[in-house]
Amino acid sequence: MSDGAPGSYERGMEMLTEVYAGDVVAMPEGTMAFNDVMMTSLFAQVWDRDVLSIKERRLLIMGVIAANGATDTWKIQAKAALVRGELTPDELRETLVMLAPYAGYPNVAPLVIECEGVIGDWERAQTSD
Predict the structure, then answer these.
(1) Domain limits of the chain?
(2) CATH 1.20.1290.10 matches 54-128
(3) Whole-number mean pLDDT of the chain?
(4) Cα dist. 88→50, 83, 91 in Å?
(5) What pLDDT is attached to residue 26?
(6) What's this model's pTM, rounded to 2 decimal places?
(7) What is the pLDDT of residues 70-119, one digit of tens each?
């Protein structure tokens, strides 16, 4: 599946690498239709737009993730935000404070523990470098 533009899969893979600081790796093109569509549409056409920054896009999707209580996806986004220097640990914590009343405390509360784990791992990696 392609967006019709030459190299859209490759552009999508490049953006995926940038967004997740190389921590999330796409499967080779043609391996799975879902992955192909995600690379050519989500990453090559949506994340690649220049209207919002990656940080702004990440904050928006973190709100959606929190509203759905998706802890595994939250951890991926939180780690990428720290590694890319988009958010500090305190700013990451503050996102949860801000999101709790809107996304629901039951959805956000489990993210607090996961967030602290991501921050702890990131801080340990900073001291070992």
Answers:
(1) 8-46, 54-128
(2) yes
(3) 93
(4) 23, 9, 5
(5) 84
(6) 0.88
(7) 999 999 999 999 999 999 999 999 999 999 999 999 999 999 999 999 99
Lookup: tokens for 86: 């988009």
Element (H, E) at 14: helix 8-19
In angstroms, the Cα distances linking 5 to 9, 40, 61, 76, 87 are 9, 9, 26, 29, 33
pLDDT given for residue 2 in this prediction:
43
Strand locations in 4-122 (E): none
Q: What is the pLDDT of residue 25?
A: 85
Which of helix, strand or coil describes residue 101?
Answer: helix
In angstroms, the CA 119 to CA 38 distance is: 28
68 is written with which tokens?
Answer: 């759905």
- Contact residues for 87 (Cβ-Cβ < 8 A; gap 6+): 55, 78, 81, 95
Q: How far apart are CA 117 and CA 75, in angstroms?
A: 9
